[in-house]
Structures are given as C-alpha cells and as structure tokens.
Specification:
alpha/beta, two-stranded antiparallel ribbon, about 30% helix, about 30% strand
Length: about 200
C-alpha cells in the first residue's frame, strides 16, 4: 500500500488486463493507496511458486490481488481480506469471474481460518504487520511458505531506520525465528521484506 500507488500506474503500459481493471476501479473510487507496480510485479512472480493457497490482507480495490491472480497457477486458491465493507464488496464483484479467488469483508485475522498458505501477503496499513498482534508465520505458512510484508523505505543502516528511529516492524520480521528473511529494495522509495518459513 502506497499513498501514490494508484497514481503510479498512469505511466505504466502493457498491464495485465485484470490489473488494469483493478487500477481503474481504484481510480473510479478515488482510492490512492494501491500497491506500487514494482510491488505488483514481485507479487506476480512469487504467486507462481504457490502450489495450493495464497492469502492477502488489505484488499483495497484489488490491485495487489490482481497481480497475484495473474501470476498464480491454475487451481490455486486465493483469499483476500478487507475490513472496509464498500471496498470488499466492489472488489468481490470485480473478481467474481476469476476462478479460485475470494474477497472477504473481515478483520485481517480471518486469514487464520483458511490457512496455512504457500504465500501470505501482509498489506493494508499495518494489519498484522507489527506489535504483539503481528501475524504468526508458524500458524499461517506451510513449511517453505513465503511471507511478504511491504511498504518499508529502503535503509542502509542496521538496524534499519524509519523517520530517524529503528524500524521495529521490519526488525521483527528480519529476525523472526521461524523465517529466513531478506529486505528487498524495489525502488528508491520502496522496500519489501520477504521471508521463507523454516522447515518444521
């Protein structure tokens, strides 16, 4: 999720059709916070490695979900959870004809009821990303499953910093004992943590 995410697509060409439809929905509803194209391309690539289930928190108007659905193998189930009722309804209608995709109106913790996942994307303004209530990769991921936590700023320091202070959310994932994780800079103003669930 980025405050300039939807706007960034105005200069993009050759978008996958489903992504273009989701971007159009975000623009139509004045939603600025879609995932950036760089993040979307990463999601599409990672979705291709999921064998059975993918989950996303913070659907918005479905731009990230569209990238995931575009990259996923046939037969993979996808669930995306959105706490805003209007966004969930509009996006569910947008994906109604896409096999295996469900958009649920619920708090992010609803993902626990449908896992474990081969790929879990934590998005949506911090839902499940930080603090004592952060998502539990040991419960939510299969062995070897992948966790993606986006919307960090690139940092050249250790520990990584945000606004001049240690970035506790990013450190949480990079040092999580259940994960092998890396901080991937995707652009000059976007970094994403990708972690793989250690063998059980």
């Amino acid at each position: 999720m980025s405050p300039l995410g939807t706007e960034a697509y105005r200069t993009e060409t050759g978008l996958p059709p489903l992504v273009a439809r989701a971007v159009a929905a975000a623009e139509r509803h004045g939603f600025a916070f879609s995932c950036l194209p760089e993040q979307g391309r990463l999601l599409r690539a990672l979705a291709g490695g999921a064998a059975h289930r993918i989950a996303e928190t913070g659907t918005g108007y479905g731009v990230g979900l569209a990238w995931l659905a575009t990259g996923a193998r046939p037969g993979v189930e996808m669930v995306s959870v959105e706490r805003d009722e209007h966004q969930a309804r509009v996006t569910a209608e947008l994906f109604a004809g896409v096999p295996g995709v469900r958009v649920l109106h619920a708090d992010w913790t609803e993902v626990y009821a449908h896992g474990p996942y081969d790929l879990l994307v934590l998005d949506g303004g911090g839902q499940g990303k930080n603090g004592e209530a952060a998502a539990d990769p040991e419960r939510l991921l299969t062995s070897g499953g992948v966790l993606v936590v986006d919307d960090f700023m690139p940092s050249a320091t250790w520990p990584p910093e945000h606004l001049g202070r240690p970035d506790s959310a990013r450190v949480h994932w990079l040092e999580h004992p259940a994960l092998r994780a890396v901080d991937l800079p995707l652009s000059g103003n976007l970094s994403t943590v990708v972690g793989v669930r250690r063998p059980r």
